[in-house]
Amino acid sequence: MTGIETEFERVALPLADAFTIARGTTTTAENVLVRVTHDGVTGVGNAAPASHYGETADTVAAVLPDLLSAVEDAGDPFALQRIERRMAETVGDNPAARAAVSIAVHDLVGKLLDEPLYRLWGLDPDEAVASSFTIGIDDTERMVEKTEAAVEAGYSVLKVKLGTDRDREIVRAVRSAAPDARIRVDANEAWRPREALELIDVLAGEDVEFVEQPVPAGNDEGRRLVYERSALPIAADESCVTLDDVPRIAETADVANLKLMKCGGLREARRMVAAARAHGLEVMLGCMVESSASIAAGAQLAPLLDYADLDGALLLDEDPFDGPVREGGRIDLAGQERPGTGAYEE
């Protein structure tokens, strides 16, 4: 058995349109690509760090040499448990960096076995849920235009970013532009508890499916108040980062929103899915703005989910990879015809 070789590179990926949420605006996604090679076969992963969780492209690049050394020292790409343990011993935090390595090694294993990950996990591709498409905050007229374009492109599930002084106007305008779509909203911690309850009553009247992270993650009392009195289901994102958070949110949320970039990799994500189910929660898998090198890995988990929000690569002006998430939000696992995560360079 030959050894393992690794490398990484930073990439700046321009977005097709400025993307705004309650915390700010993004025009370029700073990602870090990871490659792990064994026996002439290369697995690819991707880190999409978020400063909200204490990571940047600089911090990812700083810790990746140590993380990749841990993979090289393991010597066997199939030793996933050992690799995960050694990475955790090497770098205690930095989940996006660890996720990139996890994805690359899993992609490599699938390629070496010539099977997609969903098949190695025994999952049914017919159970893969469709991904939503996100409408970022903008002028109301522009948000309507984006909504109409998304519907025209075949998206039947929309996620609308809120956290403005015109949230009621936005939701009513989007609903008018997409009368048949399933609509979810995400406040990204922007509302006060009482404000959230008032707005949720309005959202319920517009047939919104659920509300994601209406109040700040650290406001435990406020989260409980909103959950207990809400007319709509509540999804936890910023409140649900790691496995330890799952039991803590179970009494204040209906849906756990997991992300590979928050939890540190595919093995941990699968543990979080199991924990969420054990606590009676529905499960959504979300993403950052990231290339299909990592979106494709998340898509392999789609048969385990109730909801998917895996549109990060679709927001890019040009994605350097292709993967199983298609236009219209369809997650085509059975048709990907590629091993590993299904991502490949264009």
Can you give a write-up of this model?
This protein is an alpha/beta fold and 346 residues long. The chain has 2 domains: 4-115, Enolase-like, domain 1; 119-345, Alpha-Beta Barrel (TIM Barrel), CATH 3.20.20. Helix content is 37%, strand content 22%. The protein has 12 helices and 13 strands. The protein has helices spanning 57-74, 80-90, 95-113, 117-120, 140-152, 167-177, 193-205, 220-229, 245-249, 260-263, 266-278, 292-299, and strands at residues 4-21, 24-38, 41-47, 133-135, 157-161, 182-186, 208-212, 234-236, 255-258, 282-285, 307-308, 321-322, 344-345. A hairpin with a 2-residue loop joins strand 1 (4-21) and strand 2 (24-38). Helix 1 (57-74) packs across helix 2, helix 1 (57-74) crosses helix 3 and helix 7 (193-205) runs parallel beside helix 8. The longest helix is centred in the N-terminal third of the chain and has 19 residues, at 95-113. The two termini are 30 Å apart.
* C-alpha Rg (nearest Å): 19 Å
Q: What can be said about the biggest beta sheet?
A: 8 strands, parallel
Strand order of the largest sheet: 4-5-6-7-8-9-10-11
Instruction: Give the CA-based shape.
Output: globular
Number of helices: 12
Low-confidence segments: none
In which range does the helix fraction lie? Answer: 25-40%
Report the count of strand segments: 13
What is the H/E order?
A: EEEHHHHEHEHEHEHEHEHHEHEEE
Number of domains: 2
- What is the name of the CATH class of the largest domain? Alpha Beta
Instruction: Please identify, by name, the CATH architecture of the largest domain.
Output: Alpha-Beta Barrel
How much of the sequence is in beta strands?
15-25%
How is the CATH topology of the largest domain named?
TIM Barrel
CATH superfamily of the largest domain, please?
Enolase-like C-terminal domain
Structural class by secondary-structure content: alpha/beta
Cα-to-Cα separation, first versus last residue? 30 Å
Integer average pLDDT = 96
